[in-house]
């Protein structure tokens, strides 16, 4: 049986199968909640993110606990934690999407080029990828962030520069496998150009893989941004991010534990949500899993 010369259309019931998965729905609900809070932060937040409130500290100069006018309490400077969490979500999501998008572009470019051209070009690109993978991502990110002046966009680019290698390796494997398929050989026999094969057949077949890795990658970038900010080499105050909220308030861990637990729980929940959705997308878009839902 001959194989189709064009990329298979996405299954019509993919969204329906995704929404049948309870864990995926839970992940989507968490993502929607965080995204909604980030978008509508200027209208939801009761205070400005950097506003130091006179009533935000106790008579002893300690943060106010959750309750009353302060839903999540206040931080060590008397700022409303709920407000800072909303604006911190903007930072975490922006860095997560931008950094992961750039990493996906770099990884796809390197992986497709190496897998499609092969030869010495592919060998050089993949050896460079292996070299990058040999460095611990967190250590490399800390070094790069320390060299450059930390800012929101610099942190996003640093994370992208250490996160593209996994995508490149996966895309390289997929591209190599696709290049050996019968329908690609048939296209070559019919005299199709490399450009036509690449853009009409190779890249469309990579879309499901890129969707899955793009979703899973956001959780990695969110965690890495939070780690860098916690270590003091990420997003710098007064710009709020969930990581630097923990960094700023870690000295009050025993006296005001909510200042660490609330942003920490938010980071873990958001990362878990993207992982759950990514895993569900992988199963839904995998042709071998159809019929098992």
UniProtKB/TrEMBL annotation:
<keyword id="KW-0812">Transmembrane</keyword>
<feature type="domain" description="ABC transmembrane type-1">
    <location>
        <begin position="89"/>
        <end position="278"/>
    </location>
</feature>
<dbReference type="InterPro" id="IPR025966">
    <property type="entry name" value="OppC_N"/>
</dbReference>
<dbReference type="Pfam" id="PF12911">
    <property type="entry name" value="OppC_N"/>
</dbReference>
<dbReference type="GO" id="GO:0015833">
    <property type="term" value="P:peptide transport"/>
</dbReference>
<dbReference type="Pfam" id="PF00528">
    <property type="entry name" value="BPD_transp_1"/>
</dbReference>
<comment type="similarity">
    <text>Belongs to the binding-protein-dependent transport system permease family.</text>
</comment>
<protein>
    <submittedName>
        <fullName>ABC transporter permease</fullName>
    </submittedName>
</protein>
<keyword id="KW-1133">Transmembrane helix</keyword>
<dbReference type="InterPro" id="IPR050366">
    <property type="entry name" value="BP-dependent_transpt_permease"/>
</dbReference>
<dbReference type="GO" id="GO:0055085">
    <property type="term" value="P:transmembrane transport"/>
</dbReference>
<keyword id="KW-0571">Peptide transport</keyword>
<feature type="transmembrane region" description="Helical">
    <location>
        <begin position="210"/>
        <end position="235"/>
    </location>
</feature>
<feature type="transmembrane region" description="Helical">
    <location>
        <begin position="255"/>
        <end position="277"/>
    </location>
</feature>
<keyword id="KW-0813">Transport</keyword>
<keyword id="KW-1003">Cell membrane</keyword>
<dbReference type="InterPro" id="IPR000515">
    <property type="entry name" value="MetI-like"/>
</dbReference>
<dbReference type="GO" id="GO:0015031">
    <property type="term" value="P:protein transport"/>
</dbReference>
<keyword id="KW-0472">Membrane</keyword>
<feature type="transmembrane region" description="Helical">
    <location>
        <begin position="23"/>
        <end position="45"/>
    </location>
</feature>
<feature type="transmembrane region" description="Helical">
    <location>
        <begin position="93"/>
        <end position="116"/>
    </location>
</feature>
<keyword id="KW-0653">Protein transport</keyword>
<dbReference type="InterPro" id="IPR035906">
    <property type="entry name" value="MetI-like_sf"/>
</dbReference>
<dbReference type="GO" id="GO:0005886">
    <property type="term" value="C:plasma membrane"/>
</dbReference>
């Amino acid at each position: 049986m001959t194989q189709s010369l064009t990329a298979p259309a996405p299954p019509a019931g993919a969204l329906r199968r995704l929404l049948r998965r309870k864990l995926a729905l839970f992940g989507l609900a968490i993502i929607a909640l965080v995204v909604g809070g980030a978008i509508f932060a200027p209208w939801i937040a009761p205070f400005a993110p950097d506003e130091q409130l006179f009533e935000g500290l106790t008579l002893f100069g300690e943060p106010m606990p959750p309750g009353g006018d302060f839903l999540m309490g206040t931080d060590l400077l008397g700022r409303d934690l709920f407000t800072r969490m909303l604006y911190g979500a903007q930072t975490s999501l922006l860095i997560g999407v931008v950094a992961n998008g750039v990493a996906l572009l770099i990884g796809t470019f390197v992986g497709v080029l190496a897998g499609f051209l092969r030869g010495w070009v592919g060998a050089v690109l993949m050896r460079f990828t292996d070299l990058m993978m040999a460095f611990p991502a967190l250590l490399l990110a800390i070094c790069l962030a320390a060299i450059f002046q930390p800012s929101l966009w610099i942190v996003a680019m640093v994370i992208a520069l250490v996160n593209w290698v996994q995508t490149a390796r996966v895309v390289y494997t997929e591209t190599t496998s696709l290049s050996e398929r019968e329908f690609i050989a048939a296209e070559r026999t019919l005299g199709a150009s490399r450009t036509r094969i690449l853009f009409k057949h190779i890249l469309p077949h990579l879309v499901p893989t890129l969707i899955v890795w793009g979703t899973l990658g956001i959780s990695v970038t969110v965690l890495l941004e939070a780690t860098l900010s916690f270590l003091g080499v990420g997003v710098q105050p007064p710009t709020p991010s969930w990581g630097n909220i923990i960094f700023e308030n870690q000295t009050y861990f025993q006296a005001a534990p909510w200042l660490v637990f609330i942003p920490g729980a938010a980071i873990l929940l958001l990362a878990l949500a993207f992982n759950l959705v990514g895993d569900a997308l992988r199963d839904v878009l995998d042709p071998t899993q159809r019929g098992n839902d």
